[in-house]
Structures are given as C-alpha cells and as structure tokens.
C-alpha cells in the first residue's frame, strides 16, 4: 500500500505491529490458563490440609522466650560453622562498640543464603553473649 501520505517506514512497521499484537494476545491467553490451573490447585489444597507428622511436631517446637527451635537449637545454631563464626564476630564487634544492630546481621545472613529474622539473632545473642 503506497500513497502520498504513507512513508516506507510506516508500511514496513505495519506487519511488525500485527505480530506484536498477536504475541500479546497469545501471552494473555497463556497467563489466563496458568491462573485457572493455580485456582484449581489452591482449591485442592484447601480441601486437603497438610499436617505435620508426630515426629516433625516433636522436632519443631515453639519456645516462648527463644523462638523456633530444632532439636533444642535456635535457627542460627543450625547454620554452617563459617556463618555462625562470622555472626559471632559481628556480635562481638557490635557489643564492644555498644551499637548492637541485629537487623544488619540478619540482612547479612540473608544475603549469604541463610534467612533469619533480627529477633532470632537477638535471641542467639541473649543466649550466648548477654550473660557473658
């Protein structure tokens, strides 16, 4: 299609626009199918609740003062030794500087692949350093 008002760029872009519209429509349809499947799975999970075995229930227990424990260890104590050692170094340095920042330590652990909350770090500090 050529006339005095249509440039070569405009005629070239028309097929690309049509392809883009088709791709967007296909993507939207695929996303709708995924949403439908997720709704079905959500309904199935709501009907069949998952419960922990008796053994898992005894291994994981809630202790009011110290948070979640696994076999009487707080979460930080289950991390690899090099992570625990670095956390202890940071706690000692912060304690010496009298500027404890449990959130900073929790972020450092998370960045290094070991998610923990700042209250859990505080619990670890209270158990291992506060009375020392």
Describe the structure.
This protein has helices at residues 8-47, 54-59, 81-96, 102-111, 118-128, and strands at residues 60-63, 67-70, 73-74. It has 132 residues and is mainly alpha-helical. Residues 59-67 have low confidence and may be disordered. It has 5 helices and 3 strands. The protein is elongated and about 85 Å long. A hairpin with a 2-residue loop joins strand 2 and strand 3 (73-74). Helix 4 packs across helix 5. Strands 1-2-3 form a 3-stranded antiparallel β-sheet.
Features of this protein?
132 residues; mainly alpha; 3-stranded antiparallel beta sheet; 3 strands; 8% strand; elongated
Going by helix content, strand content and strand pairing, the class is mainly alpha
Q: How many β-strand runs?
A: 3
Order of helices and strands: HHEEEHHH
Strand content: 5-15%
User: Which sheet architecture does the biggest sheet show?
Assistant: 3 strands, antiparallel
Please list the strands of the largest sheet in the order they lie side by side: 1-2-3
Cα gyration radius (Å): 28 Å
Give helix % range.
Answer: 55-70%
Shape: elongated
Count every helix, treating DSSP H or I runs of 4 or more residues as helices. 5
**Poorly predicted regions:** 59-67
Distance between the termini: 86 Å
Look at the structure and give the mean pLDDT.
Answer: 75
């Amino acid at each position: 299609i050529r006339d005095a008002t249509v440039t070569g760029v405009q005629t070239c872009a028309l097929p690309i626009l049509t392809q883009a519209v088709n791709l967007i429509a296909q993507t939207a349809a695929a996303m709708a199918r995924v949403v439908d499947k997720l709704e079905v799975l959500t309904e199935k999970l709501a009907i069949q609740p998952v419960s922990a075995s008796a053994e898992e229930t005894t291994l994981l227990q809630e202790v009011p003062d110290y948070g979640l424990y696994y076999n009487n260890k707080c979460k930080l104590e289950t991390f690899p030794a090099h992570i625990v050692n670095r956390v202890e170094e940071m706690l000692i340095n912060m304690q010496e500087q009298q500027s404890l920042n449990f959130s900073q330590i929790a972020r450092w652990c998370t960045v290094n692949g070991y998610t923990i909350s700042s209250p859990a770090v505080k619990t670890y500090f209270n158990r291992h350093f506060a009375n020392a």
